């Protein structure tokens, strides 16, 4: 939707769902089996998790040096949302030339998610596709504060200019641009209730954030087209 040319999914098993396989056959997704169990033996739980992340992220960097100009690194429940531009290409052209670009995180807890009626009352929009698809990125409008600091960033990098990637930073990047929250923010659609979400639920500290409404038509049209293509291929819509 924002202009990514290719998506790399690191998968613990070689067995993938029919939905993911559909995107693979479209040429948009590349699935890379990634099982490092043998190397993990003897490591504690936190170290195992960290090792998996570190190994797959740096594999992605090394695979794509000189193949893509930019790599965007984030989880499947996250999206970097441009606030001043329509897509990533226009956004990146507006930034100064750097080795890495750091985006602040904002949690959108799924326990706060709106139902479609709330959306319709807020916008006056009675689009039936909202009820059909119930898109989380459009219905999750209650965010917590933006983490401009604190290390919860995610990155867009120039792969040939970064020596090592960790979950939230580019180590030894020759230069880093801290993207302002007014320009773009990482939307993290967080499942569960970790302590920082429970604390804000008790205090009722959350803010209305509707930037994704701007992309609604593009988002729903893409869902609609994908559903039709999947049905033609004999794949049930999830």
Automatic annotation (TrEMBL):
What Pfam families does the entry give?
A: Glyco_transf_92
Q: Which organism is it from?
A: Lingula anatina (Brachiopod)
Q: Where in the cell is it found?
A: Membrane
Q: Name one cellular component (GO) term.
A: membrane
Entry coiled-coil feature ranges: none
Q: What is this protein called?
A: Glycosyltransferase family 92 protein
Query: Which keywords appear in this protein's UniProt record, sorted alphabetically?
Result: Glycosyltransferase, Membrane, Transferase, Transmembrane, Transmembrane helix
Task: Kindly give the InterPro entries that the UniProt entry links to this protein.
Answer: Glyco_transf_92
Family assignment from sequence similarity:
Belongs to the glycosyltransferase 92 family.
Q: Does the keyword Kinase apply?
A: no
The answer to keyword DNA-binding applying to this record is: no
Primary place of residence? Answer: membrane
In the record, what terms sit under GO molecular function?
Answer: glycosyltransferase activity
| Leading EC class | transferase
The EC number(s) this enzyme carries: 2.4.1.-
Per the record, membrane topology reads:
Single-pass membrane protein
